[in-house]
Amino acid sequence: MKEAVAGELSEAYDSRLVDQVRADDYTFTSSRLTVHLAREFGFCYGVDRAVDYAYQARRRFPGRNVFLTGEIIHNPHVNDRLRAEGIRFLSDPHEDQASLGPDDVVILPAFGVTVGDMARLSHQGCTLVDTTCGSVLNVWKNVIRYAKDGFTSIIHGKFKHEETQATASQATKFPNAHYLVVLDRGEATIVCDYIRHGGDPSTRSGSSRAQSRLDREAFMTRFAHAASSGFDPDQHLVRVGCANQTTMLMTESLEIGEMVGAAMRDRYGEAALAEHFRAFDTICSATQERQDAVIALLDSHTVDLMLVVGGYNSSNTCNLARICAERVPTFHIAEPDGLISPREIRHRPVGAPSTATGIEVTSADWLPASGPLIIGLTAGASTPNNIVGEVIRRLDRYANGIS
What residues are labeled active site? Predict the structure, then answer.
């Protein structure tokens, strides 16, 4: 039913202004304002497909209850529109997944769902509409291969993120298979240190044995909520394979893979490396393209500030903001209303803890009041064009004295 919903999707999420900016070499000019738009931004293929499938499902099953297991993507504007279409969210407080049956339709989001959730929904006889992104499925194939061959999956991601939880569940499909989630280089360093210096305390003597026990206790405390049930670092860090949440910072994912490979090489030697370490490229192409595009924008233009638009719980949007903030003043806003006035902006501080998804502050004097004004603009992969277009309109009004 793609054609049946195409007009509705276009009306809801497209922007003629953004189309014009693209045609004008990704540049918008108005009086003193110049906006440079990143050449890759906003909805990626996987997100576009997931939203399309959700609208199609609502039309395909009239008269039936249609549910989403949770947010289809991390964008409040899109999720609210789906609620307005009559799609119910099982993550909402008043919903009960246990009550579902054969008459119910359940949409699986772009992040995917855990093996356990899939089994329960199938057992309940629900009609399933699977919008899991192909890039996520590619990661799953690799961690399943790791598990089948007895390798622990080390996953670079946020262990509370829906995608990482789904990927981790795939890593335990085989008996005695395990996973460990690392958030960043710092946590990866702890894992690498343990690979190099931890191990079976029976091979040590005296104080070295006592230190080994302390190291293990500290390690297990640090990763208590980010490891599979029964995970033992002395056993399950002997053979490992690297993977990642597809929306993480590309350079960091690659570096973590190199760090783990180097630790394994130091522990077991180059000749035995293949027996202990594997890594596949599981970087999402859309994530990489958006990160590359914002770097290219900053390399080719001098800007007064960067605006990054997307949900505060959107990992790929937060990482775009991290990249920008290393170069210029950067504001991560969830929606156009974050641009309160020419003097005030409501935004998520760049680098705020990943667990603080609701954190938001208001800053003053964010927009230079006079002289030429050059702003860089990008948007996360779950941000539709109509949101980007409205941000440009507000910038135009504020920069040119219209509050």
Answer: 163
